[in-house]
What we know:
Two copies of one chain form a homodimer.
Chain A: H1 2-11, E1 13-15, E2 19-21, E3 29-30, H2 32-46, E4 53-57, H3 60-69, E5 76-81, E6 91-98, E7 103-110, E8 119-127, H4 131-143, E9 146-156, H5 161-167, E10 172-182, E11 185-188
Parallel strand pairs in A: 4-5, 4-8, 8-9, 9-10
Antiparallel strand pairs in A: 1-2, 5-7, 6-7, 10-11
Amino acid sequence: MQLLEQRIIEQGKIIGSDVVKVDMFLNHQMDVELICEIGKEFHRLFASCNIDKILTVEASGIGIACLTAQYFPVPVVFAKKGVHSNVGTKLFTSTVHSYTKNVDTVIGVSKDYIKEGERILIIDDFMANGEACKGMMEIINQAGAVLAGIGIVVEKGFQPGGSKLRDSGIRVESLAIIESIDDGKIVFRK
Amino acid sequence: MQLLEQRIIEQGKIIGSDVVKVDMFLNHQMDVELICEIGKEFHRLFASCNIDKILTVEASGIGIACLTAQYFPVPVVFAKKGVHSNVGTKLFTSTVHSYTKNVDTVIGVSKDYIKEGERILIIDDFMANGEACKGMMEIINQAGAVLAGIGIVVEKGFQPGGSKLRDSGIRVESLAIIESIDDGKIVFRK
Lengths: 190, 190
């Protein structure tokens, strides 16, 4: 997505050879007009997939998921972080490992809000190793729901998450894929 | 707001005499079409207030803030929870006490995203004691920005947050104010 790549180049802060901070428009301050365009693009890509619900995980996925969901329109469900895995019968839970922070977080969704057979679109802001997506997919499986696809705003193409998911047959649409960061310059996948 | 009160009556789960759970449409599963109507109503109420930015706090405020912000349109900034108050010069921080959980949480906003003189609208899903709002107001003060008003989806009118803020001269607009919960029946303030 041209508009998004342009914004990443103009405003993204490169840290070392593998981090691009986009918290001035995507995940701390949010440029809602840009994210509406992102939502329209996700809708264009997944409009024919009979989506029943969008699933994301708190916190930075929620705004993007909501601004996307209005174009379908479908409800959003967000997985909560830091729930207890022993809550028992009320929640679907899974454990998400963060490589950046080197911690495990349990995420959970009430069993009332994802039902058997529902077609679910996962939306998130970033994908690197794909751990958050794997956690959400586990919850979708527990519910007996169907993963219809994954929409990611920015994918780090030099980390394995996206490739692994695509290789396993899942439709992953990332609106910007960073192939590499060379000498402070961001190279996008064509 | 009629549509919202009706939904609370139809779907809200009353627990004891002071809790109404609305996580089936507002803060776990999100009815994005309803929340767009909520956003339009906040815009109607605050359209003439020259809002520069909407401030909320993660997690459940973010979706409501984003769906509201698109009608102005202005950016959203969300305060992050669990930041360290000793991050030093990069963040405005304040401590928010939760009476329900009896814990203190430090919330923080990057100094890059709230600037002196900006007119800020606070948006949040719930208000009881008003602690989250007080925390965000402290951050607005630290930035030298201006609090233009507070928009709340559901206020618990039998708890003191809203009254205290209004008494201090702040414009607080709550779209539904629960006056009391009597024998399992919700009474709204007229």
